[in-house]
């Protein structure tokens, strides 16, 4: 075994197992005074310091050289640099030791070597996504990919590598790289200590160097520290606090990103598409924070691998489970309870995670002594599970799944239930040091069902949307300055919009089916991440998508030059299974650059083109599940968007604050708006209900983070405008969609009094939603009717929305021996009782009392006045949650 | 079903306590330019029928419309019959000669303040009423307590999609409240066998049901009107607009030609 190999062996081993935080022995400040001392003698003297440990073999090194050196108040490393200057010795810090090796002669032609491996959590063994590795000597940085794997190609030599990750301790390693090497690293979670760095926002180095723009990263741990609605931390609600993410009202969990409707955001859970994220009609989202490891929202530039929707991608990854020990967590809340369990299947090699959640409003109702109340059902359930198997060093398998259901049933006469089922099978394979492959097979399904069983009015109504997906994603490191990712994705969509069946012979309702709608979507992509100079990085991607509408199906043709309607149908074309109906395709270029001005400032710019072939028609009036998804066809063209953005990052001198300013402009084509008609959901030919036009939006987003100290927090502000212009709507003039909010401000603060008590708040201010106010009124058949100006759609606004939430967390005493850790969370939503309007109604108010139903035949009418009313939700919601870990 | 699901959710006591509520509000809405509103009907029942003309008012006005008494109104059909209507009451123009006949198209022409407004509607036949039934239901979250009448009738034309409006009368008083705008097509039903009206009658009430045939444009008008007057103010309600009128030149309202049939049952 050559010396080099022995050293590498030592390096490899010890680095893998001993991470070292920044304040290491090599940085210790010392003073030395050597007078004609041999190197050997100098090292022995230095070793007398209890914090300095050397590891070397005298027989391999020539330490006879004599020197004189006198230094005061310098770091150990500086002393060593001077000592070994000219000597054939080099040093590296490994764990708490300083390893001395024979210096490798600098060759004229140095070869490139690759360093690669997984980075995982030291406690749980879970792989960490998006950890940034940074080599200061070379000014190079990479991050771990979606599977926690990194690759790094470097000329042979010695390097200092630092690794940083949100919520974890930063670490530094000195590495000698002279052959291709697999280096799996682990990181440790930061526990809160007063005065220390608590949370590092977007990982320290990362944001100044990476080309990523318009990204939001969130961890459930972080989310849990802020006040939550009903005390239930919710990922979608959490994201709504960030700049550039709008909502239409507080009972809705749609994500309206940068002036786009909710269906322009692709939501993935472990890569499988989620079509509907609603629990309880939109009050909560289907993602149980216990089961989630990592959340990333791409609202601006996104890598070429991602696409399929116009505006953004929300990528949610489930936890993998602890590989070393069994543990659990849970919570008992006002509205729902959670339980989570994880542990190894084979220690250090494979693990599982299982998590469940159920709301229990109905269980409370069951105890109410009123048949009317008791006989109703209202609940939601979530189950998440994941298995993670390390087959060998180069192969890993993951199996994960989600199942969720909402059910509302009223006295056995009316019922609605809906839910998602998702499954993921994933295989990570490492071909060699430079090539990593991920293969995924995904399936997801959303379905809903209405049942009515009321005398002759009885039926069962189903809708189902399925997506099957296969992916090949390659990650290749070409050179230290060039990383190339490429791959192929195929999606198969199967939409069964509506199937209605009578429940009995005497039912009024006819059986009814809408023809299924099937489509294939292929995409190929190549993404290049390039380091163009010390300060300039670029990421250049190209995606090509091909969309095929396939049979079985029906396409109607209409008389040319006339509006499409049932009356103008000329012919019906029928297609067999897999017969090609329509093709759409196109390139989607992606470009992002980052220029690091200095260690505190960076400039960013990006351009992105996206195409969307699937669309949703929302017809429900209260977040019910009957959104109808449909694919582009002969009549409905794909949506296309172009977006440019520029941004600047600034850190304050002490790095206490991180500021990010972004400006964007987005232009969207083939935007659809609904022409309302009765039974719109039941139309086979949706093209007769849609009008297409264009939309644009632009805005400025500012986010400010304070990540150090007893009080931390963040501020997000968006100033934006979005408009649509569609022939046939608003008399062809541009108008504001409901999610056009001029100002959107959110301030969130956390103050830690001590280890046990934390107080946090959340204040939001948002401009009122656009609405159409009446211009007058009239009467038809004795019914008062509001008169609108058909050319002033959404010209007015509701009053501004603002709200303050407060939450107090009290942790139990932290006893080392005790496994059980509990904490109480008390939260208040809408502390100052603000009446935030969600809309207006116009109706006859009887006897001055809005609660009287105008049509109630038993009411004695004393006065009747046609009036405007305001409707508001959630005046004040207190909640208590007990959370635990074991 | 009368109550929308949104309202049903509000009934749950816990949610109701947390959901805020509804309060009257004063909106700052300025002066309005009055627009002509037409509310016209001709049927195959014996005349007279009335065309009601009014204008819109300011939103904060006491009155929900002002009668128009200075218009010239003419009615004609596709066989050449013609009649000039005579003002008979506030804003009411009386049709006394022309009797509606299924299969004919009726033309309305209004001249008012120098502008001409026209409209036409085809009078469709309407299917027979076979019988009316009723049953008692206890008070529940979804329904009020009372006797509920159901309708058994024939489709107007078994070969095509037909449109209907039903008007319920209680003790000979027509119930034309906003939630009783009962219009439907027979597109998704296998017949009109047991259509139940969500209106509670009491014991010994006389319950009558009249069924009107509608043309597609008038049905579309009623559908939009129903959505508009029952708009729950929520975000997902489609942006409100004036219902699509079948009258030209920017007038609001509509002109309807219908066949009508009715039946009565006494709740015992």
From TrEMBL, chain A:
Q: Does the keyword Chloroplast apply?
A: no
Q: SMART domains given for it?
A: STN
Give all residue intervals belonging to the Secretin/TonB short N-terminal domain: 52-103
One Pfam family of this protein, by short name? TonB_dep_Rec_b-barrel
Keyword Repeat in the entry? The reply is: no
Keywords (alphabetical) are: Cell outer membrane, Ion transport, Iron, Iron transport, Membrane, Receptor, Signal, TonB box, Transmembrane, Transmembrane beta strand, Transport
Q: Identify its membrane topology class.
A: Multi-pass membrane protein
Report which superkingdom the organism of origin falls in: Bacteria
Q: What is its main location?
A: membrane
Q: Where in the cell is it found?
A: Cell outer membrane
Please report the name of this protein according to its UniProt entry: Carboxypeptidase-like regulatory domain-containing protein
From TrEMBL, chain B:
- Pfam families in UniProt: DUF4249 (PF14054)
From which domain of life does this come? Bacteria
Q: Which InterPro entries match?
A: DUF4249
The protein depicted here goes by the name: DUF4249 domain-containing protein
Source organism per entry reads Agaribacillus aureus
Origin organism lineage: Bacteria, Pseudomonadati, Bacteroidota, Cytophagia, Cytophagales
């Amino acid at each position: 075994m050559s010396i080099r190999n022995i050293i590498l062996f030592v390096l490899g081993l010890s680095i893998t197992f001993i991470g070292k935080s920044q304040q290491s022995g090599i940085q210790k400040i010392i003073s030395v005074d050597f007078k004609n001392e041999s190197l050997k003698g100098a090292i022995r003297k230095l070793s007398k310091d209890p914090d300095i440990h050397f590891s070397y073999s005298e027989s391999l090194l020539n330490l006879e050289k004599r020197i004189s050196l006198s230094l005061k108040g310098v770091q150990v490393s500086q002393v060593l640099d001077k000592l070994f200057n000219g000597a054939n010795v080099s040093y590296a810090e490994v764990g708490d030791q300083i390893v001395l090796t024979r210096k490798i002669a600098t060759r004229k032609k140095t070869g490139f070597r690759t360093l690669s491996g997984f980075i995982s959590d030291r406690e749980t063994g879970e792989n960490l996504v998006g950890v940034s590795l940074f080599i200061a000597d070379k000014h190079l940085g990479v991050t771990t990919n979606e599977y926690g794997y990194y690759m790094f190609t470097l000329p042979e030599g010695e390097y200092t590598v630092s690794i940083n990750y949100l919520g974890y301790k930063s670490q530094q390693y000195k590495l000698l790289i002279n052959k291709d090497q697999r280096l799996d690293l682990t990181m440790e979670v930061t526990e809160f200590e007063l005065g220390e760095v608590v949370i590092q926002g977007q990982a320290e180095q990362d944001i100044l160097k990476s080309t990523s723009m318009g990204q939001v990263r969130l961890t459930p741990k972080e989310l849990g520290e802020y006040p939550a609605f009903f005390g239930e931390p919710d990922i979608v609600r959490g994201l709504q606090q960030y700049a550039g993410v709008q909502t239409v009202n507080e009972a809705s969990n749609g994500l309206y990103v940068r002036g786009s409707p909710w269906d322009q955001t692709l939501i993935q859970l472990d890569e499988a598409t989620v079509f509907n994220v609603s629990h309880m009609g939109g009050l909560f989202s289907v993602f149980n924070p216990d089961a989630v490891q990592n959340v990333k929202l791409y609202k601006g530039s996104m890598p070429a691998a991602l696409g399929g929707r116009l505006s953004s991608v929300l990528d949610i990854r489930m936890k993998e489970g602890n590989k070393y020990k069994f543990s659990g967590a849970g919570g008992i809340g006002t509205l729902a309870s959670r339980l989570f369990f994880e542990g190894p299947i084979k220690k250090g090699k494979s693990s599982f995670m299982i998590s469940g959640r159920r709301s229990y409003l109905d269980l409370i109702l069951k105890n109410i002594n009123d048949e009317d109340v008791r006989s109703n059902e209202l609940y939601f359930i979530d189950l998440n599970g994941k298995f993670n198997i390390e087959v060998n060093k180069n192969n890993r398998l993951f199996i994960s799944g989600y199942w969720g259901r909402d059910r509302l049933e009223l006295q056995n006469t009316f019922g609605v239930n809906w839910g998602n089922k998702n499954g993921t099978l994933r295989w990570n394979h490492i071909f060699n040091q430079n090539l990593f492959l991920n293969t995924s097979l995904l399936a997801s399904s959303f379905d809903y069902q209405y049942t009515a069983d009321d005398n002759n009015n009885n039926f069962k109504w189903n809708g189902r949307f399925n997506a099957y997906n296969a992916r090949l994603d390659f990650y290749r490191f070409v050179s230290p300055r060039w990383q190339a990712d490429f791959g192929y994705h195929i999606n198969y969509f199967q939409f069964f919009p509506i199937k209605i069946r009578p429940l009995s012979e005497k039912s009024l309702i006819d059986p009814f089916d809408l023809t299924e709608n099937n489509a294939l979507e292929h995409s190929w992509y190549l993404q290049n991440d390039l380091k163009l100079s010390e300060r300039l990085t670029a990421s250049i991607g190209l995606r090509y998508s091909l969309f095929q509408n396939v049979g079985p199906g029906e396409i109607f043709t209409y008389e040319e030059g006339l509006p499409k309607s049932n009356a103008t149908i000329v012919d019906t074309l029928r297609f067999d299974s897999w017969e090609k109906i329509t093709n759409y395709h196109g390139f989607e270029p992606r470009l992002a650059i980052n220029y690091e001005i200095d260690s505190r400032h960076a400039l960013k710019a990006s351009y992105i083109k996206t195409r969307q072939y699937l669309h949703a028609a929302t017809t429900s009036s209260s977040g019910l599940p009957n959104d109808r998804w449909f694919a582009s066809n002969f009549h409905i063209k794909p949506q296309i968007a172009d977006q440019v953005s520029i941004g600047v990052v600034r850190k304050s001198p002490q790095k206490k604050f991180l500021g990010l300013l972004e400006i964007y402009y987005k232009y969207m084509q083939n935007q659809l708006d609904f022409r309302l008609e009765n039974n719109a959901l039941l139309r086979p030919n949706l093209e007769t209900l849609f009008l297409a036009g264009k939309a644009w939006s632009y805005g400025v987003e500012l986010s400010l983070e304070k990540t150090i100290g007893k009080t931390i927090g963040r501020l997000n502000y968006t100033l934006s405008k979005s408009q649509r212009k569609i022939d046939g709507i608003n008399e062809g003039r541009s108008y504001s969609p409901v999610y056009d909010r001029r100002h959107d401000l959110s301030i969130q603060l956390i103050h830690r009094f001590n280890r046990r008590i934390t107080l946090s708040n959340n204040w939001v201010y948002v401009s009122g939603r656009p609405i159409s106010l009446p211009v007058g009124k009239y009467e038809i058949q004795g019914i008062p009717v509001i008169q609108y100006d058909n050319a002033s759609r959404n010209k007015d606004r509701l009053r501004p929305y603002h709200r303050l939430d407060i939450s107090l967390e009290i942790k139990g005493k932290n006893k080392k021996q005790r496994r059980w850790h509990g904490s109480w969370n008390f939260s208040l939503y809408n502390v100052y009782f603000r009446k935030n309007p969600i809309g207006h109604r116009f109706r006859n108010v009887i006897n001055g009392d809005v609660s009287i139903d105008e049509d109630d035949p038993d009411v004695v009418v004393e006065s009747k006045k046609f009036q405007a009313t305001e409707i508001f939700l959630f005046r004040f919601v207190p909640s208590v949650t007990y959370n635990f870990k074991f | 079903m009368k109550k929308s699901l949104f309202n049903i959710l509000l009934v749950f006591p816990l949610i109701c306590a947390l959901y805020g509520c509804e309060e009257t509000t004063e909106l700052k809405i300025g002066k309005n330019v009055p627009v002509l509103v037409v509310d016209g009907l001709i049927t195959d029942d014996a005349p007279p029928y009335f065309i009601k003309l009014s204008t819109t008012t300011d939103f904060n006005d006491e009155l929900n419309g002002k009668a128009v008494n200075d218009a010239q109104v003419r009615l004609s059909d596709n066989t050449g019959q013609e009649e000039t209507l005579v003002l008979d009451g506030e804003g009411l123009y009386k049709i006394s000669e022309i009797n509606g006949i299924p299969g004919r198209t009726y033309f309305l022409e209004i001249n008012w303040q120098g502008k001409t407004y026209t409209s036409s509607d085809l009078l469709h036949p309407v299917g027979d009423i076979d019988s009316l039934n009723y049953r008692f239901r206890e008070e529940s979250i979804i329904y009020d307590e009372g006797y509920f009448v159901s309708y058994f009738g024939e489709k107007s034309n078994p070969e095509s999609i037909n449109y209907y409006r039903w008007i319920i009368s209680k003790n000979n008083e027509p119930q034309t409240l906003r939630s009783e705008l009962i219009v439907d097509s027979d597109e998704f039903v296998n017949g009109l066998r047991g259509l139940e009206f969500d209106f509670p009658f009491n014991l010994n009430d006389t319950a009558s049901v009249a069924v009107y045939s509608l043309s597609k444009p008038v049905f579309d008008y009623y559908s939009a009107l129903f959505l508009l007057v029952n708009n729950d103010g929520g975000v997902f309600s489609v942006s409100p607009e004036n219902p699509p009128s079948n009258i030209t030149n920017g007038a609001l309202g509509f002109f309807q030609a219908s066949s009508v049939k009715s039946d009565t049952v006494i709740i015992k």
